Amino acid sequence: MKTLILFASKYGTTKKCSELIAADLTDIEISDIQTATDISLESFDRIIIGTSAYFGRPDKKLSDYIKQNQSILLSKKIALFMCSKETSLEQTINKELYDHAQYKYHFGYELNISKMKFMDKLVTKKITQVSNDESHLKLEQLNELIQSLKIS
Ligand SMILES: Cc1cc2nc3c(=O)[nH]c(=O)nc-3n(C[C@H](O)[C@H](O)[C@H](O)COP(=O)(O)O)c2cc1C
Questions:
Q1: Ligand 1 centroid distance, CA of 55 (Å)
Q2: Is the CB of 13 under 6 A from ligand 1?
Q3: The whole model's pTM is what?
Q4: From the CB of 53, is ligand 1 less than 6 Å away?
Q5: Read out DSSP for the chain?
Q6: How confident is the model at residue 62, as a pLDDT?
Q7: Which domains does the chain have, with CATH numbers?
Q8: What is the pLDDT of residue 82?
Q9: What is the pLDDT of residues 35-66, one digit of tens each?
């Protein structure tokens, strides 16, 4: 089954999760929504969509892309995952796509403070009192998705 992972990631967490999934599956391509130029959804049987959340929302470019390509996405097998502290896919992702998706996962989050732009760093330090990089990824959830994808 030909699979595409389409992701949005600001400081690398969702990208890292996407790469971990891709490394364990065959016949798979991976695409960053920020840099992708022509994504041909038609040529894939299964699309895995991953995003992080900022200020209660998933990535805008990815959300717009989902809206614009809703009908073709609804004709494919879909897996969704989110990297965030508390914002959920259910609260934020296009409802039709969420209902259609075969797999929906929350992988937890990282605070990559050393990579953050000034304002994001300031907000993060103020809200969380954290000043060093932290990882709170649920790798067991990530592995569960990989195993499910392998057999489906
Ligand atoms: C400025 C800022 C705002 C954030 N807002 C949210 C939020 O509203 N909800 C949430 O669950 N996580 C929030 N987070 C946590 C990120 O979703 C988390 O750091 C995630 O791992 C980032 O993934 P990325 O590097 O792939 O973008 C925020 C992080 C930052 C730095």
A1: 7
A2: yes
A3: 0.98
A4: yes
A5: --EEEEEE-SSSHHHHHHHHHHHHSSSEEEEETTT-S---GGG-SEEEEEEEEETTEE-HHHHHHHHHTHHHHTTSEEEEEEE-SS--HHHHS-HHHHHH-SEEEE-EEEE-GGG--HHHHHHHHHHH---S-EEEE-HHHHHHHHHHHHH-
A6: 98
A7: 3-110+137-151 (3.40.50.360)
A8: 98
A9: 998 899 999 999 999 999 999 999 999 999 99
